[in-house]
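Dear colleagues,

For the upcoming journal club I promised to circulate an example of a predicted protein-ligand complex. I picked one with Phenylacetyl coenzyme A because it came up in last month's discussion. The inputs are reproduced below in full, followed by the predicted structure.
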Amino acid sequence: MVAADERVEPRDWMPEAYRRTLVRQIAQHAHSEIIGMQPEGNWVTRAPSLRRKAILLAKVQDEAGHGLYLYSAAETLGVDRAELLDLLHAGRQKYSSIFNYPTLTWADMGAIGWLVDGAAIVNQVPITRCSYGPYARAMVRICKEESFHQRQGFEVLHHLSHGTPEQHAMAQDAVDRWWWPSLMMFGPPDDRSPNSARSMAWRIKRFSNDELRQRFVDMAVPQAQALGLTLPDPDLRWDEEAGHWRYGPIDWDEFARVLTGDGPCNAQRLEHRVRAHEDGAWVREAATAYAQKQAARARA
Ligand code: FAQ
């Protein structure tokens, strides 16, 4: 089925390891969306205008929606979202490394939109052709929304870059801080990516981590030029023969530290998430009680 490029659907037979890989990746992806609301949520009350605030609020709400689609996609594989959240809260499932960095200025909203959503799109467009139907279909709408997110980030940065010298410097500083962590979003290099070979054979992943990272760099360099901003990589150069922008070494030690919980905001992100979950317990209880009442009424 997979070899014939057909979709696997929830009721089809599938190898247990295929199911487990999908649960792992889709859960991590869902967790990333909801944890990813925090760095931007930090700026909702401080957006520089009502228009910017409304746009940012809509973006953060989209991310909550993406989380919900993805938890639903994971549930088609026989797991419960409450279980997945427990694993996240216990630090036993990951979320994207990128959300462990702080958002220090308003320009960070631009850099996240342009670079983080940009990287997410490059990574996720191939997942619309992933072998597992519910995940592939969830990605279609998510990618459309990410595309709007990326454009708004580019526009925020363009505005700042062409503003006062202070605003330009703020935009440049944000790009300097977010560039390398964005490249890390694509995961470890191919020769140190334990899951890639199998996930590619199963057509969960269509391209390797390094292939997608290169695609992102090739896209970002001309966009940075259009923004009037530079990328913080002295080794960046155009390779005429290969038709690619070559980039300098990535600090994989930093990536490893962030993954093992030692990034600048890991503890804060998880604490906030657990607190929000506990504070929201009454909503889940009320919704369950209401659903039970409706079901009892329908039976009567
Ligand atoms: N961060 O063998 P591989 C967004 C882990 S976009 C943390 O290469 P794989 C939108 C990996 O899980 C961000 N962990 O693994 C947004 C594995 O650990 P495990 C979310 C990472 O799965 C924008 C180990 O390292 N997008 O949220 C990272 O084949 C703005 C070995 O790695 C997705 O999740 C990392 N960066 O490839 C929201 C996309 N990289 O599980 C708000 C779907 C690797 O064995 C604001 N996911 N690891 O313990 C994927 O495409 C893949 O899972 C990869 C990793 C490419 C991330």
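Two points we might discuss: Strands lie at 237-239, 244-246. The first strand starts at residue 237 and ends at 239.

See you all on Thursday,
B. R.
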